[in-house]
Design brief:
Layout: H1 32-41, H2 44-48, H3 67-85, H4 89-98, H5 107-118, H6 127-138, H7 152-160, H8 184-207, H9 213-219, H10 221-233, H11 239-269, H12 274-279, H13 289-307, H14 312-332, H15 339-344, H16 350-359, H17 363-379
């Protein structure tokens, strides 16, 4: 088991965990956060991330990221930072591995389409809330309890790593200490997620020939600074190697800044315990002001030049259309749903059941369902009037 003696005083200690919903005996050689990590890795929902969109819906290269490879990169970056800050690495790794498990097919376009489909029925879709439903209800692997029976700290991190929910708006989440900050292990995840996708999406965009080296340099100050250093050191290498070296340095600068600035904020705050972190008025994990401005600039550049590119917009529109049409099809024909989902309609609203079903699909599966159901309906002969 990990050596707890090396943890900072404000780190989460597994022996102080609030435990599982259904008590279980401890494992002889894995602590509870390590067991949670392993349960997530062995879950069906985690495996489905391999075939869910990160940026490119129609993958024109096997080298582009999926939700799964992105998740692994977030976990690697998160563990590096957690070790430097002497936080609980097992908890950080677990939260990184589970942070995207609630995403639907077709990336953020799919999430937007599901949310819009739910609004007329008085509902909504939020991938963090859906992730909690996955680990609490949908994953059925154990005879002794429903769901994965994860520790409180992991379930709390799923909910709070990137968003502060209101107890008034979400009374069902009251147990998760919504009036307090999450621990530092959870606070890191949203920031490492941004480091991972800002750099990885630049990489995939460059690989797809949607972004050019000089264009990235003109639009992103931190990348341009790294590029000028690389060109001074490696004047005779090709653009691809210049790009790779510049991106590596950009990632390293963001990670280093997050470590150093969070350390400084912890020192200035005077926090000494996990409880102090939870009760602090704001989140303590953060970039410095200059690096945060550069991070935001990179994100805005990606939105303008990659996410909203002419190549990707039709893919996003197709994904949203597919989700809308399948949602409407099953709302009109609930008997066409698999038997298990029809049974769920006895206890939950049809729209929520259909939303859950679609959210769990991979890109490949939802495309297949759309071909079978919606296109077949479009081509069916119409009755004569």
């Amino acid at each position: 088991m990990p050596d707890a003696s090396n943890l900072a005083s404000y780190a989460v200690r597994v022996d102080a965990s609030r435990g599982r919903r259904y008590p279980e005996p401890h494992h002889p050689y894995r602590d509870d956060f390590q067991r949670d990590r392993d349960r997530i890795i062995h879950s069906r929902a985690f495996r489905r991330l391999e075939n869910k969109t990160q940026v490119f819906t129609r993958r024109i290269s096997d080298h582009f990221r999926t939700r799964l490879t992105h998740t692994m990169e977030v976990a690697q970056i998160s563990r590096t930072i957690a070790a430097a800050l002497r936080l609980n690495e097992s908890l950080v790794e677990t939260l990184a591995l589970v942070h995207d498990i609630g995403h639907p097919p077709f990336g953020h376009a799919g999430e937007r389409a599901l949310d819009e489909a739910m609004r007329p029925h008085g509902g909504s879709f939020d991938h963090n809330l859906h992730a909690l439903r996955i680990v609490e209800c949908f994953e059925q692997r154990y005879a002794s309890h429903p769901g994965l029976n994860l520790t409180f700290e992991v379930r709390e991190g799923i909910i709070k790593h990137s968003h502060d929910y209101s107890a008034a708006e979400h009374p069902e989440l009251a147990e998760y200490l919504l009036d307090q900050r999450p621990p530092l292990e959870a606070q890191l995840i949203d920031l490492t997620d941004e480091i991972a996708y800002n750099t990885a999406d630049l990489d995939d965009g460059f690989e797809a020939h949607l972004l050019a080296l000089e264009e990235i340099g003109r639009g992103i100050e931190i990348f341009d600074r790294c590029l000028r250093q690389v060109e001074a050191e490696f004047a005779n290498v090709g653009d691809k190697l210049k790009f790779n070296e510049s991106l590596k340095r950009m990632l390293d600068q963001l990670v280093t800044d997050l470590i150093e600035n969070t350390s400084l904020r912890l020192l200035r705050s005077g926090v000494e315990t996990e409880a102090d972190v939870r009760l602090y008025p704001e989140r303590l994990a953060a970039f410095s002001a200059n690096r945060d401005a550069e991070r935001a600039q990179a994100k805005q550049f990606l939105y303008r030049h990659l996410y909203q590119s002419e190549l990707l917009l039709p893919q996003k529109a197709d994904g949203e259309k597919i989700i809308r049409e399948l949602f409407d099809h099953w709302m009109k024909n609930p008997g066409a749903l698999p038997a298990a989902y029809q049974l769920q309609m006895h206890s939950e609203a049809p729209a929520r059941v259909i939303c859950d079903y679609i959210a769990g699909m991979t890109d490949n599966f939802i495309l297949d369902q759309h071909r079978k159901l919606c296109r077949r309906a479009e081509t069916a002969p119409r009755a004569e009037r």
